[in-house]
Design brief:
The complex is a heterodimer of chains A (about 80) and B (about 750). Chain A has 2 helices and 5 strands. With about 80 residues, chain A is α+β, with helices and mostly antiparallel strands. Chain B has 23 helices and 26 strands. In chain B, the strands form 6 sheets. A 7-stranded mixed beta sheet of chain B has the order 3-5-1-12-9-10-11, sandwiched between helices. Chain B has a 5-stranded mixed beta sheet with strand order 7-15-14-13-8. In chain B, strands 16-24-25-26 form a 4-stranded mixed beta sheet, with helices on both faces. Chain B is globular. Mean pLDDT of chain B is about 95; it is low at about 1-10. The chains are: A alpha+beta (about 80), B alpha+beta (about 750). At the A-B interface, β3, β4 and β5 of A face β7 and α11 of B.
């Protein structure tokens, strides 16, 4: 199981908790299963999010591996200047 | 390949990387030959002009274009009726051409194509629009009030539980943090709370937006435009105009500055639709007035900061509420402000909340480290104030609390290898930090952070028969990146810098490339360049192996030559890249290297700035006397352009700190839409910006690169405010710190004088 940290605005969609657990070996599985388990997250995920795995930020990178025991955060989609 | 590259990082000796050769685009730029957005023409070309709303907020009842079409030379007029609804790019469409309402002064409401600019302008005057003028709001705090004029009747704040029942101007709420801030503040010996405001600053690129569009009736289009991301322009325009992506070829011109402001579209869809309607190419160029009124500045903000610390200088809690207005549409960068605000510090208790607010202003566009500078201005001002109150040296105070590898960031993830402490130590050791100050002078310090990221990237590298190399990238060169890419390719191939020619390809010639933003180009295009070169080297080794009739594994690449890997491989004369290229046709065909990836691992960059200012107590004028920018570049590929990025960020930050602002009248109209009244710093306003490049290699890049384009604008406003505070004994909490505000603050400290 992967413990997933969510930025605060997503708490509302998962019953007010900071972290949720899903079974996922890569980012695609992570996002799909988060959307299935917490339908309130689906629109945000569909619009675009970034995922931090052990401090490395991934964007639109479905098959990045999530090693067991990784620290995982779902973050807002990154933009820059 | 990438994992191997990670292992190989860093301790290698470079031959070219780190040198400062002349940039490949230099001659064209100093001779005026470089083609910027407005520098291209086409046979039969028409001139396109835009009619813009004179009202800050108005419902558009009707648009009558009949008289305009009668003007001799006018070939077409387009309005909202010429664009189909588009769910995916709803806000972009509404921004490039108003729908039911004009949402800000300058909002496009119609566009004309004519055989001359005079005819187009005459036609604009004859377009009759029936407006119903509505109440407007341009201030972020006023826009959040319950009784504020509503921009969008259907805007329900997201990120709030339970969801509000009524619409408001607050589009989104974000929250980040960990720990218990109340508990942290209870443990503090000193707590400081402050309110801050910053005004919108424009990216103020020298080159206005410009494009030339040609779109035939059968849906084939070409677009030449100044942009940081021609692939994004292609995708958005194809969607808005109902085109197949492959039939719209977009070429990025040279770019006269972007800084984030050229990451979206303004004129391009209008020019394409006008071209389709007229069957002729259409060229459109914004005036400076239009650039200010209708293209994106950054957000204006207000924020509330509270930080507590113990007597010995340990921060116990940090809290911030950030309110950013991003113009008339959702999308202010408040989430990044809330994420970056406390990123420099390792905190047990931290909480930030951000509100994304809409107002009757132009839709904001990204500006260097979007959202971070405003938050850093607020937080770093309070950090400095705490240090002074505690009697601790400001850099020492930051060092006591600085984030480092293994610390949980204020927005969640644990930091990998980062270089904040190295920038603080370099700043502390710099001669500037201990240099004497004159009368009315003060010194300030501030640190800043930006994430950096990768993004879709594609590079091709072609080995030519004469031993030269074409390097084909898809990221517009907004800061000397062709020089950096050329250096990396030449380094990897082991050939001279001048044997590599780097070009930015059009959208039909190379796979998808994300926009040049997020400080990603030297990291991502650089990584792809190195990997493409490695792939070409593998093929060149294979060709040499065929000639020598040995296995490919027995050949290695060294100093620009294929060589037998060892004594057992045989005794063969090394073959240079030119030797192999010359006979490539006979050994299997042309040799190229390609690389496509959406790389992660962009290393974050931290900076620490030291600023000396002198305040004139009689006028409130603030002069920057000395400025030193220290920043982590991971590895500086071309140090001159790394320094240039540090300096550019510092200068734009000084402008934002002291002069630049959107001034609105009570009618909601911008009062200073020109460079005479919107004052950016020029050379005569500033000292030389000194730079120190810190190199804490990024393990995510083969050469250790961290992006450097954005972090440099994060610290300056706070650093200037802190210097001003030290010089004049006043704590400025509103930007810009223009002379009237500074004088008022100084006068307020002299009650007897103020009373006279």
């Amino acid at each position: 199981m992967v413990q997933v940290g969510l930025w605060g605005s997503l708490k509302a969609a998962v019953g007010g908790v900071d972290t949720v657990e899903v079974e996922a070996a890569n980012i695609r599985q992570l996002l799909n299963r988060l959307s299935e388990a917490h339908p309130g997250l689906a629109p945000v995920i569909e619009k675009g999010v970034a995922v931090s795995i052990d401090g490395e930020i991934h964007q639109d990178n479905w098959f990045a591996e999530i090693p067991p025991g990784s620290e995982v955060y779902v973050l807002p989609h990154m933009e820059g200047g | 390949m990438l994992d191997k590259a990670k292992d190989a990082v860093i301790d290698r000796e470079f031959k070219l990387v780190g040198s400062r050769p002349v940039r490949p685009d230099g001659v064209d730029k100093v001779t005026g030959r470089a083609r910027f957005g407005a520098d291209i023409s086409a046979p039969g070309m028409l001139v396109g002009k835009v009619l813009r709303s004179p009202h800050a907020h108005a419902r558009i009842h009707s648009i009558d274009i009949h008289a305009a079409l009668q003007v001799p030379g006018v070939k077409a007029v387009v309005t909202r009726d010429d664009f189909a609804e588009n769910a995916k790019h709803k806000d972009v469409l509404c921004n490039v051409m108003a729908r039911d309402k004009a949402l800000y002064e300058g909002h496009a409401v119609a566009a004309v194509a004519a055989t001359s600019a005079a005819a187009a302008r005459k036609a604009l005057k004859l377009i009759k629009i029936d407006y119903d003028i509505l109440p407007h709001v341009t201030d972020v705090d006023e826009a959040m009030r319950d009784d504020a004029p509503l921009l969008h009747d259907d805007m329900i704040t997201s990120g709030v539980d339970p969801a509000p029942e009524k619409p408001s101007n607050v589009a989104r709420r974000f929250e980040f943090g960990h720990g218990d801030v109340d508990d942290g503040f209870a443990k503090a010996d000193v707590v400081i709370e402050r309110e801050f405001k910053t005004e919108a600053a424009h990216q103020a690129y020298i080159e206005p937006h410009a494009c030339l569009a040609s779109l035939t009736e059968d849906g084939h289009g070409e677009l030449f435009c100044c942009t940081q991301g021609h692939y994004a322009v292609r995708d958005i325009c194809a969607s808005l105009c109902g085109l197949e992506v492959s039939k719209l070829r977009v070429t990025a011109s040279e770019i006269g500055g972007g800084f984030g402001g050229k990451t979206t579209v303004f004129l391009e869809p209008l020019a394409l639709v006008l071209s389709r309607k007229t069957g002729r190419p259409v060229k459109m160029v914004m005036s400076r007035d239009e650039v200010f009124r209708a293209s994106g500045p950054t957000a204006s903000t207000s924020s509330s900061i509270k930080i507590g610390a113990t007597r010995d200088g340990r921060i116990t809690a940090g809290q911030g509420e950030f309110r950013y207005q991003g113009g008339a549409f959702t999308g202010s960068p408040v989430q990044f402000g809330a994420m970056c605000a406390f990123a420099c510090y390792a905190l047990d208790n931290v909480k930030t909340v951000g509100y994304d607010v809409v107002t009757n202003r132009p839709k904001q566009a990204a500006y260097r480290a979007p959202g971070a500078p405003m938050a850093a201005f607020a937080v770093e001002s309070v950090i400095e104030e705490l240090a002074v109150k505690l009697g601790i040296d400001p850099i020492e105070f930051r060092l006591k609390n600085a984030a480092q590898e293994g610390d949980k960031s204020s927005y969640g993830p644990t930091f990998p290898r980062i270089g904040l402490i190295e920038t603080l130590e370099a700043a502390k050791a710099h001669e500037h930090y201990s240099a004497p100050l004159g009368p009315n002078q003060g010194r300030g310090v501030a640190s800043g952070y930006w994430f950096n990221f990768g993004g879709a990237t594609s590079v091709s590298l072609n080995i030519h028969p004469d031993g030269t190399v074409a390097l084909v990238v898809g990221t517009p060169d907004i800061g000397g990146s062709r020089a950096s890419m050329t250096l990396m390719a030449a380094e990897e191939l082991g050939i001279p810098y001048d044997k590599v020619n780097c070009i930015v390809a059009d959208t039909a010639s190379l796979g998808l490339n994300e926009t040049s933003h997020g400080s990603r180009v030297t990291f991502a295009s650089g990584l792809a360049t190195i990997e493409a070169a490695r792939n070409a080297k593998t093929e060149m080794c294979a060709r040499a192996a065929m000639i020598w009739e040995i296995s490919e594994e027995a050949v290695t690449w060294e100093d620009g030559h294929a060589k037998p890997a060892g004594a057992n491989a045989g005794d063969f004369e090394p073959m240079s890249l030119a030797d192999i290229a010359k006979i490539a046709e006979k050994t299997g065909g042309p040799i190229s290297g390609h690389f496509e990836k959406n790389p992660a691992g962009a290393g974050a960059s931290f900076a620490t700035h030291i600023v000396d200012v002198e305040v004139d107590p009689e006028t409130g004028r603030v002069e920057v006397k000395r400025f030193t920018a220290v920043q982590d570049a991971g590895k500086a590929i071309h140090p001159s352009y790394v320094e240039g990025q540090f300096q550019g960020g510092a200068v734009q930050g000084v402008g934002w700190a002291l002069n630049e602002e959107y001034v609105y009248g009570p009618d909601g109209k911008m009062q200073n839409a020109g460079f005479l009244d919107y004052r950016v710093p020029v050379c005569s306003d500033l000292p030389m910006i000194d730079t120190v490049i810190v190199e804490v290699p990024n393990p995510g890049h083969p050469y250790g690169v961290r992006g450097v384009g954005e972090t440099g604008i994060v610290p300056p406003m706070a650093a200037v405010a802190n210097a001003l505070s030290a010089a004049a004994g006043v704590r400025m909490t509103e930007l810009p710190m223009s002379p009237p505000k500074v004088l008022r603050a100084i006068d307020d400290t002299r009650p007897s004088i103020a009373a006279e």
